[in-house]
Amino acid sequence: MASSHSKDGPRANGKIAVVTGINGYIASVLGHDLLSKGYKVRGTVRSRAVGQALADGAYRPFASQFEIVQVSDITAPHAFDEAVKGKWPTAGWKVEWAPSGASLTSSAGPPGAHQIHHVASPANFNLTSVEEVVHVAVDATKNVLQTAHDCAGPQLEAVVVTSSVAAIINESQTPANHVFTEADWNEASVKVLEQANIQPDGIQLYFASKTLAEKAVWSWREEHKPSFSISAVCPSIVLGPRPQLPATPDQLNQTLQPTWAIFSGQDGSLDEFLPVTAVVDVRDVSAIHIWCGEHPAASDGQRYIASGGHYNAQATADILRKHYPARRAIIPEGHPGQGYRPDFRQPPDKFEFDGSKAARAVGLTYIPVEQTIVDTAKALEKYL
Q: Which residues have a Cβ under 8 Å from the Cβ of 105 and sit 6 or more positions away?
């Protein structure tokens, strides 16, 4: 991903932002964008190896701004304390998990984080344990909020939580063409957990985890009435380029895997797709997070759906065949034009997510679906 910083890096803005799970898809883009805007960024990771890979790779130009904090268990009490409290090093102090051999040259920073972006959460549809998915998502979220309250200090302005439209969709109890807004909640997936005779699948668990984790956010806010703002960003399916891809395509996150499967011509790639067809570019998701962090008074107590259009497997194939004519023998043809509208809006008989609130607040125009898919494919070319 191209960055806008100069050869010597962007001008520091004096602010520290914490990003949890910074090696993840959304978080790695968000971290890169924050660094490009001059923030000092502390990113949490479970594994030192993935933190080092990111520091030595896409974040290397930001050596003086970037610090990794290892959090092996995000559900452990006080797991995030070190990440949010004041400890930014003085000149010449060597960061253990900065790029190999790099030394920080910035002066001592403020006593703690100004923004916390909590992105880390289980996002693996293959997990089928309530403990692995729901409990982890909820407990980690509570941990971040409590640490923000107890350790960050009075300069903390905002906590932004990455939720999902999974916490909003409730199609079993709404008309087929319902337009979901921030007023909606997914009660159906939570009820599945309460039924002893049903074993939830990975998708149901993920939906329930995002719902219960976000509900925990608002319950905590009501109880503690913190001095800092709290907001939630609820993206639909996320696509778009990330600053650093994993070494092999089998390590791609689950929203990128279907695009790769079609792009690489895998058998059955048009038959299996994601449970939601609403889509948003990861760069727009990052922009909404940053706006929330930079506008605490306006964003406090607010949810923001991030959704810019709709797509499906056939739309993906059609777009890729159009932009990669040399790969038409590889990318499956399917039934061109089937199941989606040319303007990539949802058909009128299907449910919709209204992302206009975020667009108005931030002042953004969502990146077009076709551009998102093409830019995603350009990033995935490294695997061809």
A: 64, 91, 92
